[in-house]
Fold this protein.
Amino acid sequence: MPDSRRGAADVVVLDASVLTMDPESPHAAALAITGGTITHVGGRDEVSELIGPGTDVIEAGGRVACPGFVDIHTHTDLDLFRDPAHLLFKNYLMQGITTVLAGNCGMAEMAPGELLARLDAHPPAVNFGTLAGHGYVRDACGIPAGLEELSDAQIEAMRAVLAKAMADGAFGMSTGLEYIPGLSSRTAELIACATVVAEHGGFYASHMRSEGDHLLAAVEEGIRIGRDSGARVQLSHLKTDGACNWWKTDAVIGAIEAARADGIDVAGDQYPYRFFGWNPSIFIPGEHLAAGRPALVGTYLRDPARRRLIKDGIVDRITRYHGGDGELVVIFDWTDGAGQRWQGATLAAILTARGLTPAPDALAELILEMLPDERADAVMGSDLSTSDEAVRRYLSLPYLAVCTDGFNQPWLAPCHPRSYGAFPKVLGEYVRDKGALPLETALMKMTSLPASLMGLADRGVLRAGMRADVVVFDAETVGERATFGTPAAPAGIDFVLVNGMVVVDRRAGGDGFRLEGGSPRGGPGMVLRRPV
C-alpha cells in the first residue's frame, strides 16, 4: 500500500488496463505520478489514497495505459530549428511518441554536441537523443563524396570526430549506404568507425547498401561490421524492396537469427507500411551517384552515353520492382520547368496529363527531369516497396522495434503518413484488425524494447522510480487516420504524458494538444545523452 503521508500525487490514472512492460508485475489498474516520476503502480483503491486537492485525476474508463512510445528511428533533427513549432513535436506526441532518436541514415546538419547544446537552451516537448551521422563525419573531415579508398590519416580523422560526438552524448553512429557519401564508403572504413562507437558503449545503425537486389549481401555486411567492431548493430527500417525481391524475406531473417545465435548483437526497426519514402536519386544506380549530385546533374546527364546507361537503370528498376506501373510511385511536391506544380500526383498521372503514355521509358524520363530539383525538402515522394506479408514477417520478430522513419514537419501535405500514424497503425491494423501479433507484444516493440536498444534504463517500463512517460489509448478505436494527401492525428490516443506533464488530453474535445509554441521554459522533454 502507498503511504499517504508522502503527500498527494501530481497525476493519477485510474480504472485503466495498465500494461507495465515490467515482467515482474505486468498488469495493474492504476498509477500515480509525482515530480515527473512514477511513484506507484497498483490497484485503484491504493492509488486513490494519493489524490489531493491539486491532483489531476485521469479516469481511464478501461482504456489501456502503457509507457510512452520510443521511436528509435527518426529524422526529426533535419528541420528542428526551422520553425519554433517543430520543437513541439505535435505529430509525434499525438501518436503517443514521447522519446525520439534522431540522426539516422547517416544524415545530420550539425555535430551532435552542438545539436544537444541548442536543445539544452530550448528544451523540446519530447525526450530527444541523437546518433552521429556518418555523412556528417565524412564531410567534417573534408573527404570528397566519391572517394572510396581512404588514407590512414583520413580514417583517424573520422575516428577523432566520432570520439568527440560520442563524448558529447551521441548514442552511436548511423550510416546511409544508399546515399551520398555513404555509398562510397568501404566496409573497412565502417568497421574502423564502428569500433570507436563500440568503445564508447554505443551502437551502429545502418540504412544498408541495398534493400532490394543486394539485400542479402547488405545484411551480411552489417553483421560483419558488428562482428569485427564489437558494436551492437541496428538494421534500419528493415524491409524487402521490390516485387522481384520479396522472396528474400525469409533468407534475411535467417541470416539475422544465425548471427544472433553466434553471439552478434543484431536488432532492427521497421515502419508498418508497404510504401517507403524516396527522392528521385533513389532510382539512380549507385555507380552513377558516388561522385555526388553536382557530377550527376552537371556532367553525367549531359553525356548522351552516360545518360542512356542511367536511364536504362531506372527503366530496369521500375520494370522489375513495380511491373512498370507508374501508379505505384507518388511525388509529394514538385514544380516542373513549365511552372506546373504537382502535389500528391503519381508519375503515371503526370504523364497522362501531358498527353503521354506512362510506359517505363517515359517514367524514367520524368524521373530524370526531376533530378535537378531534388533537395532535402523537395520532390520527396513514395513508391510501393514491400509486401504486406513481409511487413508482417518482420513485425513478428521480437528484436525489431516499431519506428516512424519520420520527419518533424507538423501537418505538412502531401506527406508520408508514417510521420503521423505509424504507431497507431500497428495497434489498429496489425493488432486489432489483422491479428498479426498480440497487443502486449506490439507495445513491447514500441516501449521497453527500443528503450533497451538505446540503453535507456529509466524509460520504457511503468514502475516506481521510472520517468513518467505514459500513453492512455482506446484499443477499440486506436488507428491511423493520415493519408498521403492529408495529414491527420490518429484516433484513439486520448492522453499522453511526458515526464509527468499531460501534453495530450482529449477530455476537453478538439485535438487535445495542450502545448503552445514560444514558451521561454521550453517543452517538458529531456535532452538525452548516451548513458555511461
About this structure: The chain has 16 helices and 23 strands. The mean pLDDT is 94. The CA atoms of residues 8 and 51 lie 5 Å apart. The first strand starts at residue 11 and ends at 14.
